[in-house]
Specification:
Helix Hairpins; 19 helices; Potassium Channel Kv1.1, Chain A; Four Helix Bundle (Hemerythrin (Met), subunit A); four-stranded mixed sheet; mainly alpha; two-stranded antiparallel ribbon
Length: 489
């Protein structure tokens, strides 16, 4: 291999008679040799391989700016890159598109494409989907790590109210942050269960009392327990609203709307009970109060705040709208067809229960879903045959979309567990890198501090490794060291 100071130069005629289209170069990537011709490479002149053709006349400085090593005798360029990814990338010169092989990290493959200066537009759409999914995962990991770092770091420039607000938010929203926060989460969960049990038990006639007008009402003890639970829910919601970093987003969140719907009926019914009698008839007030009490069932959805399983189920159903739409479409078509057939076949029987096609919808629904209440049933032979075919088709229609929905739930659940584990590993790696970065300077700092006699609280703070000093890819443009997110391992 000739050095940069060598005056001789590789195999290019001084008069430039050798044309780029007829040139032949050899590229060695990680031990894999590949021969390229100029006519193929010049199709994409902005790529690194195409630049190799023109770099020979620019000297060794130009050559080594593009490759890791060069053999002028063989006219062979050496690259210390991934050969598997390179085999995929060179397809762009022959087929005009690139397919990423299985087992290659999408982010690493994107970095390889950037190194070879191949535009991402040549990547096939199916491979772009994998790349976008990987980017979303890394962004989610970065977001989770940043939230943890924000909780660990304390900004001294913040006011006392801001620090108190952040502490209340973490105390109520993040049970994993401390032991008292876990206790509060358990208490909130118990209050939800108690309130739901009281709502159900209050409807038992033996536990109800009769007022002066002879109307049944809930037992005073149960009413007191209900009031205490509503007081807890109200205090919890107000504190979370006050400490929320983004109050508009907090108020419009689905789970927070559920919290309002669980609390509001109590205060509205209380207002109607004390003031509504003066504005409307007493019977109308009682009907309105009973209707509002039914809205208390919304508080059972508050359990989703403390259950990761329910949250996962909700997100999985949101991602399964297509499958759920197919299920409803299959059932709707079957209900319409079999209800019309059942009505037509049962008209010959004098005691038919199928009075109209809309009324037959109910029979078709409970038949196709294999519920079968028996309030409406066919009496003719053809009608019974139609019923048998309808519930067989119903079983098939329901079973077909269920498997994709279950797969979506399992995939999302496993993905959340992987992201949670990856975020923890990233924090551990960041803390380790931060400690290694400061270990080299800690000895000299210790000697300086001892020499200057600076001991005490300032002394310990200088030596302490802070979590807020760590670094995370996707959140900072600096590249001090490689992290798990950068290497995609």
């Amino acid at each position: 291999i000739k050095m940069a100071g060598d005056s001789s130069f590789p195999d290019v005629d001084s008069d430039g008679s050798e044309k780029n289209e007829e040139m032949e170069i050899v590229v060695n990537v990680g031990g894999v040799r590949q021969v390229f011709y100029g006519d193929n490479l010049n199709q994409y002149p902005e790529t690194r391989l195409a630049e190799l053709i023109n770099c020979l006349s620019g000297g060794y400085d130009s050559i080594f700016s593009l490759c890791d090593d060069y053999d002028p005798g063989k006219r062979e360029f050496y690259f210390d890159r991934d050969p598997d990814a390179f085999k995929c990338i060179i397809d762009v010169y022959y087929f005009g598109e690139i397919h990423m092989k299985k087992g290659i990290c999408p982010i690493c493959f994107k970095n390889e494409m950037e190194f070879w200066k191949v535009d991402l537009k040549f990547l096939d759409d199916c491979c772009k989907t994998h790349l976008s999914e990987k980017k979303e995962e890394l962004e989610e990991i970065a977001r989770r790590v940043q939230l943890i770092l924000d909780d660990l770091g304390v900004d001294a420039s913040e006011s006392r109210w801001k620090r108190c607000q952040k502490y209340i938010w973490k105390f109520l929203e993040k049970p994993e942050s401390s032991y008292p926060a876990r206790v509060i989460a358990v208490l909130s969960f118990l209050f939800i269960l108690i309130s739901s049990v009281v709502m159900c038990v209050g409807t038992i006639p033996d536990l109800q009392v009769v007022d002066a007008e002879g109307n049944r009402m809930e037992h005073p003890t149960l009413d007191s327990i209900e009031t205490a639970c509503i007081g807890w829910f109200t205090m919890e919601y107000v504190l979370r609203l006050i400490s929320s970093p983004n109050k508009l987003h907090f108020a419009l969140s689905f789970m927070n709307i559920v919290d309002v719907l669980a609390i509001l009926p109590f205060y509205v019914s209380l207002t109607l009970t004390h003031l509504g009698a003066k504005l409307m008839e007493l019977s109308n007030v009682q009907q309105a109060v009973q209707a509002l009490r039914i809205m208390r069932i919304a508080r059972i959805f508050k359990l989703a705040r403390h259950s990761s399983g329910l949250q996962t189920l909700t997100y999985a159903l949101k991602r399964s709208f297509k499958e759920l739409g197919l299920l409803l479409m299959y059932l709707a078509v079957g209900i319409f067809v079999f209800s019309a057939l059942g009505y037509t076949m049962e008209q010959s029987h004098p005691e038919t229960l199928f009075k109209s096609i809309p009324q037959s919808f109910w029979w078709a629904i409970i038949t196709m879903t294999t519920v079968g209440y028996g309030d409406i049933y066919p009496k003719t032979t053809l009608g019974k045959l139609n019923a048998a075919i309808s519930f067989l088709c119903g079983v098939i229609a329901i079973a077909l979309p269920i498997h994709p929905i279950i797969n979506n739930f399992v995939r999302y659940y496993n993905k959340q567990r992987v992201l949670e584990t990856a975020a923890k590993h990233e924090l551990e790696l960041m803390e380790l890198n931060s400690a290694e970065g400061k270990a080299a300077s800690s000895k000299s700092e210790l000697e300086d501090l001892v020499r200057e006699g600076k001991e005490g609280p300032f002394y310990s703070s200088r030596l302490k490794v802070s979590h807020s000093d760590t670094f995370i890819h996707l959140l900072s443009e600096e590249k001090h060291y490689r992290t798990r997110l950068q290497s995609c391992k």
